[in-house]
């Protein structure tokens, strides 16, 4: 139709874009150095944190008891198999950031005081809410005003430790070996070492007690069942399984690591690794260029000029 007109295709002219950016280069002369100055200020006031790592390996266990446990299912309809070697280690790794681990750590008052020193009062020998500034009250008021949940202060507890484990602890399994690496970043490397050591000990103790309760329950069941069964073959199977459970209980009760043992560490980096100066400067430069580009686009679209007398004289001499 005659009214139909073909719309011209818009093509990005990089040369024209480069000329616009170059004409407004004075903007970048302000935004990039400003971003770098802010980055330097941040690096000087930010909390420097060390990286502390600890490597774990699964505990080697005897396979003698795994062959006969399945036979009991034909008698009592129970699955008493151990799930294969390494199953306890998998549970151990999963439990490192669990609420059960947080509950175990919460019983260590000395560790809690070191993790949350701002919440502990030496004068009162009790937990108390640390003082907050005006900005904190303003943010809380804004959250409440827009309907966001406002988190109230509570003394260090398992809930706070669980959040800490989720946010601050990093668990990394190895692709080529059963070794698992735990990492944490803290300004006090000795505190971080104590935290990882206590975490590993607490989780291992939790799984040990769990295994003891299960073994005691199986032993009690098998002992009562032996008093009811008179068939020789069934009794022999029950006796074999009872012997296996006694072995399992013996291994769990031994004064050695149950599910995992420390392979290496804990060890701390020689110097703080966070915040990274290189990453901070790269982000600052990018932020400066992005901010400058936004300002240039606004000035170009509105047809306004950007002039600072000192910089303008400097650029005219260059």
Give structural attributes.
about 325 residues, alpha+beta, Bacterial polysaccharide co-polymerase-like, two-stranded antiparallel ribbon, 12 helices, about 55% helix
Mean pLDDT: 81
Compressed to H and E, one letter per element, the order equals HHEHHHHEEHHEEHHEHH
Secondary structure: number of strands: 6
How is the biggest beta sheet arranged? 4 strands, antiparallel
**Sheet/helix structural class:** alpha+beta
What is the spatial order of strands in the main beta sheet? 4-5-1-6
Briefly note the CATH topology name of the domain at 50-116 and 156-203 and 260-268.
Bacterial polysaccharide co-polymerase-like
The CATH architecture of the domain at 50-116 and 156-203 and 260-268 comes to 2-Layer Sandwich
Shape: elongated
> Count of helices?
12
Helix share, percent? 55-70%
- CATH C-level category of the domain at 50-116 and 156-203 and 260-268: Alpha Beta
Unreliable runs: 64-85
- Report the end-to-end length measured between terminal Cα atoms: 57 Å
């Amino acid at each position: 139709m005659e009214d139909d007109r073909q719309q011209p295709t818009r093509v990005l002219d990089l040369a024209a874009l480069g000329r616009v950016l170059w004409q407004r280069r004075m903007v970048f002369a302000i935004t990039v150095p400003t971003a770098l100055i802010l980055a330097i200020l941040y690096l000087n006031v930010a909390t420097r944190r060390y990286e502390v790592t600890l490597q774990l390996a699964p505990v080697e266990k005897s396979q003698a008891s795994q062959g006969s446990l399945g036979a009991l299912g034909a008698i009592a309809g129970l699955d008493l198999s151990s799930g294969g070697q390494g199953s306890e280690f998998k549970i151990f790794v999963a439990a490192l950031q669990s609420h059960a681990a947080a509950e175990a750590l919460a019983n260590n008052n000395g560790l809690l005081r070191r993790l949350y020193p701002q919440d502990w009062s030496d004068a009162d020998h009790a937990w108390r809410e640390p003082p907050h500034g005006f900005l904190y009250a303003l943010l809380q008021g804004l959250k409440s005003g827009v309907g966001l949940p406002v988190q109230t202060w509570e003394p260090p507890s398992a809930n706070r430790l669980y959040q800490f484990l989720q946010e601050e602890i990093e668990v990394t399994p190895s692709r080529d070996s059963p070794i698992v690496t735990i990492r944490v970043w803290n300004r006090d490397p000795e505190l971080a070492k104590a935290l990882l050591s206590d975490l590993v000990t607490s989780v291992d103790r939790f799984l040990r007690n769990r295994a003891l309760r299960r073994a005691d329950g199986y032993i009690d069941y098998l002992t009562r069942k032996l008093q009811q069964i008179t068939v020789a073959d069934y009794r022999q199977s029950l006796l074999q399984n009872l012997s296996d459970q006694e072995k399992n209980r013996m291994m769990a009760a031994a004064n050695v690591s149950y599910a995992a043992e420390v392979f290496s560490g804990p060890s701390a980096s020689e110097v703080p690794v966070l915040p990274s100066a290189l990453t901070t400067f790269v982000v600052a430069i990018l932020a400066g260029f992005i901010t400058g580009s936004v300002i240039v686009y606004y000035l170009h679209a509105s047809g306004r000029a950007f002039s600072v007398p000192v910089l303008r004289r400097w650029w005219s001499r260059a």
